[in-house]
Amino acid sequence: MQDSIEIQPCGALDADVRPPGSKSITNRALCCAALAIGPSRLSGVLDADDTRIMASALETLGFTIDAQWETSDVHVQGGGGAVPAREASLMLGNSGTSIRFLTALCCLGQGSYLLDGIPRMRERPIGALVDSLNELGGDVSCMDGRPPVKVSASGLRGGAVRVDGSESSQFLSAILMTLPWMREYSVARTTGSAVSRPYIRMTCAVMRRFGVDVLQLEEAGEYSVDPRHRYVGTDFDIEPDATAASYFWGAAAIAGGRVRVNGLGPNSIQGDARFAQILEEAGCAITSGENFIEVTGPATRGIEVDMGDVSDTVQTLASVALFVDGVTVIRGVAHNRHKESDRIGNLATELRKLGARVDERDDGLAITPGPLRPARIDTWNDHRMAMALSLVGLRQPGVVINDPHCVTKTWPGYFDALRILTSSADPSARSTDGNGR
User: Fold this and answer.
1) CA pair distance 198, 204, nearest whole angstrom
2) DSSP 29-40
3) Strand 222-225 relative to strand 214-217, pairing
4) Which end of the chain is more exposed for a tag (fewer CB within 10 A), N or C?
5) Which entry of 272, 312, 378, 403 is annotated as an active-site residue?
6) Is 2 helix (H, G, I), strand (E, B) or coil?
7) Among 376, 358, 380, which residue's Cα sits nearest to residue 368?
8) Strands 357-361 and 304-306, how do they pair?
9) Which pLDDT score, from 0 to 100, does residue 430 have?
10) What burial class does residue 362 get, using C-beta atoms within 10 Å of its C-beta: 0-12 exposed, 13-18 middle, 19+ buried?
11) Of 281, 295, 288, which is closest to residue 266 (Cα–Cα)?
């Protein structure tokens, strides 16, 4: 892939699409399958850096993984709650799900494990998870609350544990997935202001597919499992990625026309499917059925919205915000500063390049659209910055995305998919006001 890509403006869209499989479901399913009794077949898996990192790490830990990436199938021979390797060094790039889930999984082993990643990974928080695992009888250490992480494993005793969910929902998800294999009946209780709760519900739904029901008092932030239940290998078809779908829906909100995402319906286990409803608040029309959600644009008005539960779609809404009337206020996403990039500060920088006035806040942004202008967008090695901000170029000429290769983290074929999408456009409906608005 070249060092930069210039996005070509298009007209109103008219397309039916299906995004690749969910990254979040794929990585949860890989962990549950590895801990299960017997074999599992995962179909519809996402082929991307993050999922390959997870699969490769599980192989390094001694699990038998047969990944047929070209057909989106992965076969996993479960270890029945045991980690085969007694020693391993795992290099996990910038995959936050991998380092957090695998830190907990390694605690079920018998031996020594080191988990690390790229320099940005060493800036991302993991201390709260380490504290919780030690409370459960683990022997885990890290550096100032950040990776690298060292695990001296002898299984987990279990019991009652407090999990701080204010920085990442992945800490609680990591604990939940190990509950069936702890020696004692265990209860996880969240403390702090838990973020991204839909991802916890997703974790529980994936665990259920492998035979383990999570008993939850969500309002009280309390989770447990029946100690008689264990993961059992299964066939699992993974639904399309709802965060990836947000770019297709966002394209309709910016360029106009309609985009239907197939494979995702209102009952999706992914919280980011709610992004379509956010676009409805911004003036788009929404149609849905059992197995699809369709957005018809353009978006017309600014809104104020708490996106704490759908924080991976913040950049997508920020791109849409450049083309509406009025101010768009995004709040509740302070934890976005600790993801692949500072998704508040860095996002504000790029939006200003495009001509917007941005009020950066501790937990979000207020975006006031202005006359747009061409810009070279720096992606900060963040796949979501690249994908979301590329949508601006569907109406504003001269938008260039630097380092487009970063999208391989979750969607290597994104820019090809965008070109196919825009080939459905009506060029006569293209904006001609020179400001993309």
Assistant:
1) 10
2) HHHHHHHSBSEE
3) antiparallel
4) N
5) 312
6) coil
7) 358
8) unpaired
9) 53
10) exposed
11) 288
φ/ψ (deg, to 5) at 383 = -55, -35
Which two tokens mark 224? Answer: 């447990």
Q: Which amino acid is residue 296, in one-letter code?
A: T
Contact by Cβ (8 Å): 225, 203: no
Residue 376 phi, psi (nearest 5):
-95, 120
Q: Tens digit of pLDDT for each residue in 203-233? A: 999 999 999 999 987 677 899 998 789 999 9
Tokens of 57: 């790490």
Q: Where do we find the tokens 């290597």? A: 412
Give tens-digit pLDDT for 373-401.
Answer: 999 999 999 999 999 999 999 999 999 99
Q: What share of the chain is helix, strand, coil (3-state, %, to 5)?
A: 35, 25, 35
Residue 312 known to be catalytic: yes
d(CA 243, CA 25): 12
Q: What is the pTM of this model?
A: 0.91
Sequence-distant (6+) residues with CB within 8 A of 119 are none
CA distance 405 to 414: 10
Token digits of residue 258: 């309609």
